[in-house]
Q: What sequence folds into this?
């Protein structure tokens, strides 16, 4: 059971959607961070070119459990 969690801030990006940007950030973080427990989307933005959204961005906080050392 995890009794302590750590929170890091990330920026996710996608050419498809904000949802995909969140999933990309979580997927990439999971490559180097174990025990992911939750995500909070803090902000959503997008880049626009020629009146079209060309890139979706999300600022998010990712929580993960801290392992106990014995």
A:
């Amino acid at each position: 059971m995890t009794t302590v969690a750590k929170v890091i801030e990330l920026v996710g990006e996608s050419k498809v959607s904000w949802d995909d940007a969140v999933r990309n950030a979580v997927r990439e973080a999971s490559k180097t961070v174990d025990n992911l427990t939750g995500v909070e989307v803090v902000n959503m933005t997008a880049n626009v070119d020629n009146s079209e959204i060309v890139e979706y961005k999300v600022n998010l906080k990712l929580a993960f459990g801290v392992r106990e050392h014995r």
Observations:
- Residues 5-65 form a domain with the Dodecin subunit-like fold (CATH 3.30.1660.10).
- The helical segments are 18-29.
- The first helix runs from residue 18 to 29.
